[in-house]
């Protein structure tokens, strides 16, 4: 039983394309996140949603658009992909508030060529 | 501003003890987390500290000093499978988001 699952695990695409990454959690959490991990392994938050509402947007380019149809799903759509978007994208979820231990999905390795 | 510092890499011997330090400067503080991340895998939760002192969980312990902006993760009886990156993360006081350090890559040698 996968707690946080994201698809696809690998994504190779050309510059300029549009792609989506899907994420689902079955932990009953009310908060979901997208993180980006670059080649230096630095994990940086991009977005956070609580009960389908956007609560954190870390100055991510407009080409990145998250969508949360319900509190168990948080998808990430990326328009006009650029070389610099190549990274591993992690979805995570937690309960809101303090001591918010986050559970991470297995990651999506995006390679833009 | 927000700044979290950890050593980039460490090496230790199987069966030994290793301490991974983390210093932080953040505008707010709701606790500090340690995560383990094996190569190509997701980060997994190890420990949480919000009060000063030591939290022990099996072979792993984590310490926090809020006045010094300092934490460490202590790994005892090291095993080869402990070779991984260890990520220190501070929970922001205003938004509750996790702010991660760059991680420490630990190599355990026979």
If you had to describe this structure to a student in words, what would you say it looks like?
- The complex is a heterodimer of chains A (113) and B (110).
- Chain A is mainly β and 113 residues long.
- Chain A is 0% helix and 56% strand.
- Chain A has strands spanning 4-7, 10-13, 19-25, 31-37, 43-50, 53-57, 64-70, 73-78, 87-94, 103-104, 108-112.
- In chain A, strands 2, 4, 5, 6, 9, 10 and 11 form a seven-stranded mixed beta sheet that branches.
- Chain A starts with a strand and ends with a strand.
- The mean pLDDT of chain A is 92.
- Chain B is mainly β and 110 residues long.
- Chain B is built from no helices and eleven strands.
- In chain B, strands 2, 4, 5, 9, 10 and 11 form a six-stranded mixed beta sheet that branches.
- In chain B, strand 7 (60-65) and strand 8 form a beta hairpin.
- The model of chain B has no long low-confidence stretch (mean pLDDT 93).
- The interface between A and B is medium-sized, with 24 and 24 residues.
C-alpha-based Rg of chain A, rounded: 13 Å
Largest sheet of chain B: 6 strands, mixed
| Approximate shape of chain B | globular
Percentage beta strand of chain A: over 45%
Greatest interface (CB-CB under 8 A), with counts per chain? A-B, 24 and 24 residues
Could you estimate the helical fraction of the residues of chain B in percent?
Answer: under 10%
Q: Looking at the chains present, what oligomeric state does this protein adopt?
A: heterodimer
Q: What letter string, H or E per element, gives the SSE order of chain A?
A: EEEEEEEEEEE
- Detail the poorly predicted runs of chain B: none
The radius of gyration of chain B is 13 Å
Average of the residue pLDDT scores of chain B: 93
Distance between termini of chain B?
41 Å
